[in-house]
Amino acid sequence: MNAAELIRLALSRLSTSRLRAMLTMLGVIIGVGSIVALVAVAQGATSGITDRIQGLGTNLLTVSPGFSRTGFTRGALGSATTLTIGDANALGAVTGVAAVAPEISTSGTIIAGVQNESTTVIGTTPAYPTVFSYTMWQGSFFNEAAVDNSLRVAVIGSTTADNLGLDATSLGQTIQISGIPFELVGIMQPKGTSGSTTQDDQVLIPLSTARHYFVGSDKVRTIGVSVATASAIDTTQADLTVVMEQRHGTNGTNDDFSITSQAQLLSTFSSITGLLTVLLGGIASISLLVGGIGIMNIMLVSVRERTREIGIRKAIGARSSDILFQFLVEALVLSLLGGLIGILVGVLISWLIGQIAGWGFIFNPFTVVVAVGFSLIVGVVFGVWPARQAARLDPIASLRYE
Amino acid sequence: MAESLFAPPEPSPFGVPASEAGAPVPVIELRGVTRIYSSGRLEVAALRGVDLDVYQGDFLAIVGPSGSGKSTMMNIIGCLDRPTAGSYRLGGTPIEQLSDDDLARVRGRAIGFVFQSFNLLPRTSALENVATPLLYQGVPRKERYARAQAALERLGLGDRMTHEPSELSGGQQQRVAIARALVTEPALILADEPTGNLDSQSGADVIKLLHELNAAGTTIVLITHDSDVAVEARRQVHVRDGLLIQ
Description:
Oligomer: heterodimer
Strand content of chain A: 15-25%
Largest sheet of chain A: 6 strands, mixed, barrel
Strand content of chain B: 25-35%
CATH superfamily of chain B: P-loop containing nucleotide triphosphate hydrolases
Largest sheet of chain B: 6 strands, mixed
């Protein structure tokens, strides 16, 4: 018997008990579906965050404070406030640095007309859009003069603008930040990166203004450093470290700051998401295993039920191998059909989640190949034993079986 | 030797079993066939040295009460079982030496079974049932269905081809089973109590059918406990306690 005849036989057999076939396949459908969906979700999350990291700015180095120490308790990285505006100015003088944008951040309530919103207020320098890759949609970013004179001018993100109902006609209008009036001078383009929109929900004011009205100290949260050429990132990072260590009197073992590049951030992140993908895929594989056991169970029941049929087939000329392949192909058709439906379900779910989470549709042909391969393996592994049971039946006893 | 049995160009390998000397070779040749079933230390001899020749075109009834060993004979003649001792030649081919796969092939090509309980494949159309033996011979799909259709039409079931066994009467089911036995053009039809589950009218129809097939040249071995059925055969042998009484 050739493969086509075996498949035809299996399909005609399964079509006589559709409900049972469907229920048997359900295990594999769920297994394969969850593998496809979970891997797609993990990859979607990865690409969403990767986009955001890349959207932070090109050739960006971020200087963050170290951890604080209270007694013997070590705080989280970035919990200390060890960076100052002086550090930022010193870093700006390092060769190879194109621009430096220190950030002071606080939160505030913004009122524009009758609308109000609570959001992040960041005090920074005119280098901010260059360093963090923002472009202006309306108006312009504040200039050096605004920083020098601590002017009360504000640039807002696109999401903030939407939330407050502000648009091109609103430039020059007065908005209140925590009760202090500011002139709206610009609205930024959305970053357009997927995922959460926090990068577009913020209010930017001159560094000196922020210190004057909101913060008071010369401590800054982070310092963004834009490197002139991509190839010089590593050497510049080393230079910055030297400058910072000199200024803070540390020697590499007790640094109270850290400098990370986008590449480092990406590789750290991708190692985490890689682990996540394997973990989720592994969990989903367990359900595929359970589905395979379901197939084996039904095939064993089927061999028992069809003992007489097996006897008849043997009497009219079927060899043991014909019976073996008949049952094996039935198990394979079940698992493969389940696998294909599972892929459809998984793709649908990952599309749905992609739409909701905002990273769009991610389709990985490799996952499909793996899923089909897995369901074939499940079919063979869990189909062989029942099929061997069927093939070994004695024709005389089977013919008499009631 | 075995090759001559399975040579595909010959539709019936036993068609002309005459030897060069002109003496006919029997289709079935049993010599001292013994079958002992052993379970643990207990041994039961179902057959105790049976000799039997059946020639081309014969219509033989093997008659015996239950427990006489006639079922064991039918299993051995039908190549479903092997003798413990003695020899069995089917169309001149010694069966003892064949592998299980070769036995399956012999069953498929040389023997057509008709059972008391019909033994049709459930939830399978009459046409598919009749075509199934050809499937295991590797006959192409189209030819399979053409031959199955011809066999069903020959038995007057041309209008029942798509019916499943559960939709057919007992007499019709047995005719489908006979069509299935015939479709491979076997050397031998082996009928085990073919009328046992039928009403007398259907039973008479089946016997009439067997007569017609025999008249057309098919060798038939009928196994029964019913002497009324046995008298229909051209020749009878009786089995008692594992021995033949001619």
